[in-house]
Structure formats: C-alpha cells, structure tokens
C-alpha cells in the first residue's frame, strides 16, 4: 500500500485548533500506513480504528462549530460528509471479520475519506474565509465554485455548485439531466 501524504502548511485553514487536529489526523494516517505494511493483529487494527473514531468525532464537532462561526455556506453538506465518515467507521469497527478485510477498509477510509476530505473539502473552508476576509460578497462566492458534470446529451456540460457536487460525488445522491433524464457524471477535463 502506498504512503499517505504528510502534513504540509499548504493544508492549513489558518485556525490553530483545527490545524493542530489535522496534523494529528495526518500523524494517525502515517501510523496507519506503517501498520498496514506489516503483519498486524486484528486487535491492533481495531485499537487504531477506535483511536481514529474517537478523535474524528471531537475534530468534526470542533470543525463544524468553526464553520458555523464563519457562516460557511456549505456547512450542511460538510456535516453530511462528516456523518458518512463516522457511519463508515462504525460499520467497519463492527462488521469486519478478517484482518485483511479490516486492513483494506481502514486504508480506504483513511485515504479516501479522511485525507481527501482534509485536502479537498476542508480547504474550501479556507478559501471561503479568504474571500470573506477580502470583503467579497458571500452570495458571489457561493456562485463562483462550479464543478463540471456530463450526461447523455450530446456536448452538454452541466456546471454545478459545490454543494450539489458533494451530494453526487461523496454522498451518492443521484441527480439527473432534465433533458435526457440520465444521471449526471462528474467530468474532469484533465482525465
């Protein structure tokens, strides 16, 4: 399994408490990577999962309070992602039967949900703060973030806001094109 990224100041959201918690989560991810690359007992994995689980619950609450204090426009979507991460962790802790299964699912949660969440979604909080600090109008900021989606319509690209993007890509809520009635699919022109 590949190594996880390490903490870098480019991931800072410029809030000392949240940044310190993110650094701790990166350290837990590094600890996870080291454990997953060797023979490990099921009890060790469950202990690490429990440590992650408890820390993430505290972190998510603090982060949600912070987002509320700065009137972050995607607070509900972000909270939904947090709930999904906690739900996935709960299922993992309770349902895995084999050590290999635990290792695989732990890797997925740490890499996909945790680090991707910090690197991509928590950075949106920082961007919001910077724009508000620069006295940009909040409604304009919300309109600015667009994500590209395609459907079966020929040469049609749907430009969706961040909130809808999160619902489709991370919360697996289907949205359909009003014209062709097919599900929208995330489109990354760089792929």
Automatic annotation (TrEMBL):
Pfam families: Hemerythrin. The keyword Transport applies. Transmembrane segments: none annotated. Signal peptide: none annotated. InterPro entries: Haemerythrin_Fe_BS, Hemerythrin, Hemerythrin-like, Hemerythrin-like_sf, Hemerythrin_metal-bd. Residues 16-127 form the Hemerythrin-like domain. Gene3D superfamilies: Hemerythrin-like. SUPFAM superfamilies: Hemerythrin-like. Keywords: Iron, Metal-binding, Oxygen transport, Transport. Belongs to the hemerythrin family. This is Hemerythrin family non-heme iron protein. It comes from Campylobacter peloridis.
């Amino acid at each position: 399994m590949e190594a996880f990224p390490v903490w870098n100041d480019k991931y800072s959201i410029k809030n000392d408490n949240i940044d310190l918690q993110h650094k701790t989560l990166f350290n837990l991810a590094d600890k996870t990577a080291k454990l997953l690359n060797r023979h490990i007992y099921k009890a060790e994995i469950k202990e690490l999962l429990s440590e992650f689980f408890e820390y993430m619950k505290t972190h998510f609450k603090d982060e949600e309070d912070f987002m509320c204090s700065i009137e972050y426009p995607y607070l509900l979507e972000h909270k939904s992602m947090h709930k999904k991460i906690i739900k996935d962790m709960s299922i993992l802790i309770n349902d895995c039967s084999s050590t290999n299964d635990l290792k695989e699912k732990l890797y997925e949660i740490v890499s996909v949900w945790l680090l991707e969440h910090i690197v991509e979604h928590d950075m949106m909080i920082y961007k919001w703060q910077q724009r508000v600090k620069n006295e940009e109008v909040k409604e304009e900021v919300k309109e600015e973030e667009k994500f590209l989606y395609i459907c079966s319509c020929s040469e049609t690209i749907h430009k969706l806001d961040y909130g809808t993007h999160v619902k489709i890509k991370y919360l697996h809520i289907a949205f359909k094109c009003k014209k062709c009635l097919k599900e929208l699919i995330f489109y990354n022109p760089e792929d």
